[in-house]
Each structure stands twice: as structure tokens, then as C-alpha cells.
Design goal:
heterodimer; A: 392 residues; alpha/beta; Peroxisomal Thiolase, Chain A, domain 1; 9-stranded mixed β-sheet; 18% strand; globular; B: 150 residues; alpha+beta; 5-stranded antiparallel β-sheet; 3-stranded antiparallel β-sheet; 8 strands
């Protein structure tokens, strides 16, 4: 069965910062929505459905903040869904918007949201609450410690060093310095990363994403609508999802189906998106990638799950510059999640940045000649993954 | 212009039911200082911590199997940063596959000097043998036990 084509006709994103004291939560959503509507040359009435992108409520400190956000997206009288798959929320939201159109239910759908992570004084406490109260939450688990433990297993399996982690930071900060929308835009050296303080061994301060505030929005439309209205678009040609079981300790020990070192379900998600897009050799066919990696070590297993390197092979690739702007397949030319993380929209921005890249509108961080790109999002403790292929 | 802020703290109380499987597990820890897993009848996998059903087969687990007290470190981290409402640093914790288990259970690592990160990490590397230690006063909780090298 061939799916009907769905295009991205506009995106909006804030210039992300730690705090935005000039803007309330709905103000930030509206900022991104306005930019997308201007880009699409549409009025609010042209949008038939809203997919609202919002991860854990406690991060913005407003229970069911989609209620407060409904006005900022012009939701009155429209179909409306809220999506939450943790860190994967943004790409799950783009997928849900895609499905509205691919199913033939709507011709024009907007997804939007915002986050104000910098307003939450206890983000690791909020994230500790994603673990069950019985067996795991009594331990001080958080997203940093959970992914530090992935890094420990990855290093043990493939020999990644702390300097190897630092080189991911150096690459992404250089990329972010070229992207006016990125939050952390200052270039750093390997020595500076190595000198930053330990947060959760082997992760140091500069190996971590920032807590960002800002909004994101995208407008998707059917091929029929795009042609009738002679709109510019790039096309979502592959959509994948995959889930993983709950317990972290089941991804180690004996007889596990997925090693916590790797991103097994992310690979399956990419396999699905690639199959749909007809990609058989990602190393040759993919021009650019925006991969969800909030800590430096996790970019390695994400590159491998995307099929851009063999298992354990991403380290050499980063060291050789293969994944830098100017290299064979730039990964996170925007600076990625490592430089900007407004959780509710982070994975949406991955897709939006790829849309900019393949349309040739990424400005100073443009990857020359990019025509086919991929994006991913990871949610929970490696439970929920989403992937997309976007083509010019 | 002057921009105002409003500070709020959420203080929400829950009383969570642990269910039959976890209750039996924690009573054994509290009363007898023993750790048990549940075996999946279909695959023979021993799940620790114990669950009523297998995540792989969805079949009910069939019997209790005592595991440990020895085991091997599967992963760890050492936290040096203070987070509000989490323990004061530094502390080390991670996952251990106890002898007789097929999956790993979380716990703190104690008895390692954490002052020098690289030296401490070497003491806790993947594959290190550990032994389970139990608190004298136990209340039936994950914090009733921890792991030490040995």
C-alpha cells in the first residue's frame, strides 16, 4: 500500500533561551504558531486540526497545559489532540499530524507547543517521577543518570573515551554557533569540556543539554492542497515508531533482547521509516540527520541506530569529521538537542530543522546540496522512539 | 519594563499500593534479608525485581527463586552534582545481576571512596563482583539493601 504524500509547508521556532521572562507559556506557543502561519501564508481558519505537543506537565508546572495552550493555537472549533511520549513528544506530534492527512481526514493540520524547562527548579526531580514508585524511584534515577549508565555500557562494549564524548560536544557547539535559534551558541574545545565538572560519571556539565524555553510549530498539508494552492513544500516520505520494554535492568544481565548501551528500538524505528521511504543504504542515501541526543554519549548509539555507522563505529566517524558540517553526513547541524532542549518541542525541532535543510533554507548552518534528511526522537527511559525521512 | 515572576512549589501526597508480587518480595527483604525473583514459566528467565508477568511473553510468572547475595555490576554512575529533593552528593548507584537472576536490579554502591572520580569508577567497572548488604533496621524498601565490592 502506498501512502498519500504529505508535505511540510511551514515551520516556526523560537530563538531558544534558558528563560523567557517576557513571555507566558501561551505567549511562547503563539510566537511559534505565528511564525508558522506567516510562513504558510495561511489564516487560522485554514487549519483543520491541531496536534498539541506537550511532554510531562510538571516540567512547565501547569497541569494539562494543553488547556491553557488551546487559544494560542487557535484551537476553538477544531479537532484537537494532545500528544505526550516524553522526549519523543515532538516527533510523535508531527506523526499524528501526518496521520490525519494520510488517512484523508484533513488537508491542513498544525502541530505546535512550547516548553519552559528553565522555569522548573527541579527538572531531575520531575524526571525521577517517570520511574515506578515500587522498585526504581526509591533510587535517585533521572535522565542524566539513566543515560550515564548507557554510556558506561557503551564505553565498556566499544571503548568510547571521555575525550570521544567531548568531541561530540565540540562538533555540536560549533554547529550551534552557526544557528541563530540555538540556545548554547558558544564554541568550546575538548579541553574545556574535559575541565567541566562531573555531574554523573562519565557525564560532565558540558556533555549535558541545557534547560531551554521556547516554542515550535509546523504546518502539514496534503499533496492535493499543496498543488491546488501552489505552495512550496518538502515531503515526509518515511514515518517509523518503535517501543521498548519498561525495566532498565532488563536491558542488561543475561538473555536481554536490547542492550542499554545501544538504542535497539530506535534502530527498528529507523528500519520502518527507511522501508517506507525506499531507503536501502542510509550511508549513501542520507544527506543530513537531526538525531535526538541530549547527552554527548547518546549521539553515538543514535548514529549507529540510524544506520550511519556500524555498532561501535560512530566514535571513529565523529573523530574523522564524517558527521560535521562539511563531512559526509552532517549530524545535528543545528547543534542538536545538546545545545537546545525545550523538551515538549525538541523532537519536533529535529523534523523542522531537516525540513529547513532539504528545502535549502537553513541559512548559515545549511548542509550544501541536502535533498534527503532524517530525524529522530527518544522518549522515556528508552521506551518510545519516533523517526522520519524528509525529502525535497 | 519590569517583568514579574511567581514562585510555586507542588507538594502532592500519594499512598501507592505495591501489589501482591512486590509486597511478598519486600516482606522477604524486611523479615529475612533475602532477595527473590520470579521465574517466567515459558522461558525460564528469572526476573529480578520480581514481576507478576513476563515483559517478553506476557505469561504470568510461576515461582519464586532466591537470588544473590553475590552478583556482578552491569552498569553504574557516580553523581557529583546536587539536585533538589535527591540525595546529597557524591553517591554511586547502578544495576547488579545477582547470582541466579537473568536481569539486573538497582541499588546503591557503598564502601568505595568517591573523592577521585576516575579511581572510583575503576572500582565499579562493568563485571566487578559485589555482595549484597542489608541494613539492620529494615522497612521493606529498595533502600534496605545495597552492594559492596567483594
Amino acid at each position: 500500500m502506498s501512502a498519500p504524500r504529505v508535505g511540510i509547508i511551514a515551520i516556526g521556532q523560537s530563538a531558544f533561551q534558558r528563560r523567557r521572562d517576557d513571555a507566558s507559556y501561551p505567549d511562547l506557543v503563539r510566537e511559534a504558531v505565528n511564525e508558522a502561519l506567516i510562513g504558510a501564508q495561511l489564516e487560522l481558519d485554514d487549519i483543520e486540526a491541531i496536534v498539541y505537543s506537550l511532554s510531562p506537565d510538571a516540567m512547565v508546572g501547569i497541569g494539562n497545559a494543553e488547556r491553557l495552550g488551546v487559544d494560542a493555537v487557535g484551537g476553538r472549533g477544531k479537532r484537537f489532540l494532545r500528544i505526550n511520549t516524553g522526549g519523543a513528544t515532538g516527533i510523535s506530534s508531527v506523526a499524528a499530524a501526518y496521520y490525519h492527512i494520510a488517512a484523508g481526514a484533513c488537508d491542513v493540520v498544525m502541530t505546535a507547543g512550547a516548553d519552559k524547562v528553565g522555569e522548573c527548579g527541579d527538572s531531575q526531580t520531575v524526571l525521577n517521577k517517570i520511574w515506578d514508585p515500587t522498585y526504581e524511584r526509591p533510587l535517585p534515577l533521572g535522565t542524566i543518570t539513566m543515560l550515564a549508565m548507557s554510556g558506561i555500557r557503551y564505553a565498556d562494549k566499544y571503548g568510547m573515551s571521555e575525550e570521544d564524548m567531548a568531541r561530540v560536544v565540540v562538533k555540536n557547539r560549533l554547529h550551534a554557533s552557526l544557528n541563530p535559534k540555538a540556545h548554547l551558541r558558544q564554541e568550546v574545545s575538548v579541553d574545556e569540556v574535559m575541565a567541566s565538572r562531573y555531574i554523573s560519571w562519565p557525564i560532565k556539565l558540558m556533555d549535558c543539554c541545557p534547560q531551554s524555553s521556547g516554542g515550535g510549530a509546523m504546518v502539514l498539508a496534503s499533496e492535493k492542497y499543496i498543488k491546488q494552492n501552489r505552495l512550496d513544500a518538502v515531503w515526509i516520505t518515511g514515518v517509523g515508531h518503535c517501543s521498548e520494554t519498561y525495566y532498565l535492568g532488563d536491558r542488561m544481565g543475561r538473555g536481554f533482547t536490547a542492550d542499554h548501551a545501544d538504542a535497539y528500538a530506535l534502530k527498528h524505528s529507523f528500519d520502518r521509516a527507511y522501508k517506507m521511504a525506499g531507503i536501502t543504504d542510509p550511508v549513501k542515501q542520507v544527506d543530513v540527520a537531526e538525531l535526538y541526543a541530549p547527552f554527548s554519549n547518546t549521539e553515538y548509539h543514535s548514529i549507529e541506530a540510524a544506520g550511519l555507522a556500524d555498532l561501535g563505529g560512530a566514535v571513529a566517524g565523529v573523530n574523522e569529521g564524517r558527521f560535521s558540517i562539511g563531512g559526509a553526513i552532517p549530524v545535528n547541524p543545528s547543534g542538536g538537542v545538546l545545545c537546545t532542549n525545550a523538551i515538549a518541542v525538541t523532537a519536533m525541532i529535529r523534523v523542522a530543522e531537516i525540513a529547513l535543510q532539504v528545502s535549502g533554507r537553513a541559512g548559515t548552518h545549511q548542509v550544501k546540496g541536502a535533498k534527503l534528511g532524517i530525524a529522530s526522537g527518544n522518549g522515556g527511559d528508552h521506551q518510545f522512539f519516533g523517526t522520519m525521512v524528509v525529502e525535497a | 519594563m519590569e517583568l514579574l515572576k511567581r514562585r510555586e512549589a507542588w507538594n502532592i501526597t500519594y499512598t501507592h499500593a505495591l501489589g501482591e508480587t512486590a509486597s511478598w518480595f519486600f516482606v522477604q527483604i524486611r523479615d529475612n534479608a533475602r532477595i527473590y525473583g520470579r521465574r517466567c514459566g515459558k522461558t525460564g528467565r528469572v526476573l529480578v525485581p520480581p514481576r507478576a508477568f513476563s515483559d517478553q511473553t506476557l505469561e504470568p510468572t510461576t515461582d519464586w527463586v532466591e537470588v544473590g547475595p553475590g552478583g556482578r555490576i552491569e552498569t553504574f554512575t557516580i553523581v557529583y552534582e546536587e539536585f533538589q529533593n535527591l540525595p546529597p552528593p557524591p553517591y554511586a548507584f547502578g544495576y547488579v545481576m545477582l547470582d541466579g537472576a537473568d536481569t539486573a536490579i538497582g541499588g546503591f554502591f557503598k564502601g568505595v571512596d568517591l573523592a577521585e572520580p576516575a579511581k572510583a569508577a575503576e572500582q565499579l567497572k562493568v563485571g566487578t563482583r559485589v555482595i549484597t548488604k542489608f541494613a539492620e533496621q529494615r522497612k521493606g524498601d529498595m533502600l534496605d539493601f545495597w552492594f559492596e565490592r567483594g
